[in-house]
Design brief:
ten-stranded antiparallel beta sheet, alpha+beta, 22% strand, four-stranded antiparallel beta sheet, HIT family, subunit A, 2 domains, 6 helices
Length: 335
C-alpha cells in the first residue's frame, strides 16, 4: 500500500510508491536499455493496458479497441491507489496518509512517432478537452484536494515510453509548490488588491522583451526570474482561477498557443526533453480573486547539482530576455 509521508521540517509531502518499489541495488550500475519495438499505446495493443477510463472514438467502435484518437487509462504502475481511503494517522512524531489517489495516463495520439509539438492543432485541442473532462470529473470526488496534470517528454525528463502521452495524479493533499504559489499570491493581493499573475501578464506584455507569443486569450513568456534555460509559462490574459472553468473558445486558443510554443522549443532546441505542469486553483476553496491557473514548461537542458539542492537557489545561464527573442524569431512551418 502506498503512503504519503510529511516532512516535518519543510512541510512537504512525499509519496512512498510501493507499487513502483525498487531495491537499493536496482540503482547500481544502471545502463541505457535498448528500446523495445512493442508499445502498449499503439493501435491494436489496447488489451495490454488497463481498461480505458475515457476515449474519444467513433460511436460505432468498441471500448478498448482501435479507432480512438485520444485515450485515457489508469497508470499500470500507479504512484497512488484509488481503492484506498485517505485515512490519516501518526507514526511517532511523523504524519502519514494512506496512499489514496488517482494516477492516469492520457495517450495523446495513435501515431507512435508524433508528439504535441508536431501534432496538428486540432489534435492538440482534443488533448486539452480530455484534460478538462478528467479534471472536472475528479474534482467532484470529496477525497480529492488537487489534480495535477503534467507531461514528461523524453527519457531525461522522466518519460518511460516514447509514445506521446501525459499524465494526471489526483491527491488528497495540495502540493507544497502550489501552496507556496497560492500563499505568495495571497500576500500580493493583500498589499495591492490585484492578482499577481494578472499583473505579471500585463507587465510582460508592456515590456515585450520576454514575450514568446500571445493571442486573444493567452500569453506565453520566459519568466523574469526563470529557474531554467528556456523555461516558458502560458497564462490566461483575463483572470481565471480554476482550469476546470476554461470555455470552448478558450480551449481553441490554449491549444493553439501550447502547440506553437512547444513547436518553437522543438525547432530551436532540436526536440529537447522537457516537463510541463498545469497549476490550478483549488476547487471550492478561497483564492478566486488572487490565484490564476497557468502552465509551466521546463526544458531539461541543465542538471540540478549540489549548490541548487543545498541552497534552494537555481543557476540559469540563459537570460529570459534572450529566450523571449530567440523563440519569437523561430520560423514555424504552417501545419
Amino acid at each position: 500500500m502506498p503512503e504519503l509521508r510529511k516532512d516535518p521540517i519543510m512541510k512537504r509531502w512525499v509519496i512512498i510508491a510501493t507499487e513502483r518499489a525498487k531495491r537499493p541495488h536496482d540503482f547500481v550500475g544502471t545502463k541505457e536499455e535498448a528500446s523495445s519495438s512493442f508499445c502498449p499505446f499503439d493501435y491494436g495493443n489496447e488489451h495490454t493496458t488497463p481498461p480505458e477510463i475515457l476515449a474519444f472514438r467513433p460511436a460505432d467502435t468498441e471500448k478498448d479497441s482501435p479507432g480512438w484518437w485520444v485515450r485515457i487509462v489508469a497508470n499500470k504502475f500507479p504512484a497512488l491507489d484509488p481503492e484506498a481511503e485517505p485515512d490519516k494517522f501518526g507514526h511517532g512524531m511523523y504524519d502519514v496518509i494512506k496512499g489514496f489517489g488517482t494516477h492516469e495516463v492520457i495517450v495523446e495520439t495513435p501515431d507512435h512517432k508524433a508528439n504535441l509539438a508536431t501534432l496538428p492543432y486540432k489534435q492538440v485541442k482534443e488533448v486539452i478537452w480530455a484534460y478538462r473532462e478528467r479534471y472536472k470529473a475528479l474534482e467532484k470526488d470529496p477525497r480529492v484536494r488537487y489534480v495535477l496534470i503534467f507531461k514528461n517528454h523524453g527519457k531525461d525528463a522522466g518519460a518511460s515510453l516514447e509514445h506521446s502521452h501525459s499524465q494526471l495524479i489526483a491527491t488528497p493533499i495540495v502540493p507544497k509548490r502550489v501552496m507556496e504559489e497560492i500563499e505568495g499570491s495571497r500576500e500580493y493581493f493583500a498589499f495591492r488588491d490585484r492578482c499577481i499573475f494578472c499583473d505579471m501578464a500585463n507587465q510582460e506584455r508592456l515590456e515585450g522583451t520576454r514575450i514568446v507569443e500571445e493571442n486573444d486569450d493567452f500569453v506565453a513568456f520566459a519568466p523574469f526570474a526563470s529557474r531554467f534555460p528556456f523555461e516558458t509559462w502560458i497564462l490566461p490574459r483575463v483572470h481565471q482561477y480554476n482550469f476546470g472553468s476554461i470555455e470552448a473558445d478558450q480551449i481553441d486558443r490554449f491549444a493553439a498557443i501550447l502547440k506553437s510554443v512547444l513547436l518553437r522549443i522543438y525547432t530551436a532546441l532540436d526536440n529537447p526533453p522537457y516537463n510541463f505542469m498545469l497549476h490550478t486553483g483549488i476547487s471550492g476553496e478561497e483564492g478566486n480573486q488572487y490565484y490564476h491557473w497557468h502552465l509551466e514548461i521546463v526544458p531539461r537542458l541543465t542538471r540540478v547539482a549540489g549548490f541548487e539542492w543545498g541552497s534552494g537557489f537555481y543557476i540559469n545561464p540563459v537570460p529570459p530576455e534572450d529566450v523571449g527573442r530567440y523563440l519569437r524569431e523561430v520560423e514555424l512551418k504552417k501545419q
